[in-house]
Amino acid sequence: MEQKQLRTLIETAAAQRQLSYAPYSGYRVGAALLAADGRIFTGCNVENAAYAPSICAERTAIAKAVSEGVHSFSAICVVGGFTDESDDYSTPCGFCRQTLREFCSPGFQIIVAKNTADYKTFTLDQLLPESFGPENLRMKAPGKK
Question: pTM of the entire structure?
Answer without folding.
Answer: 0.89
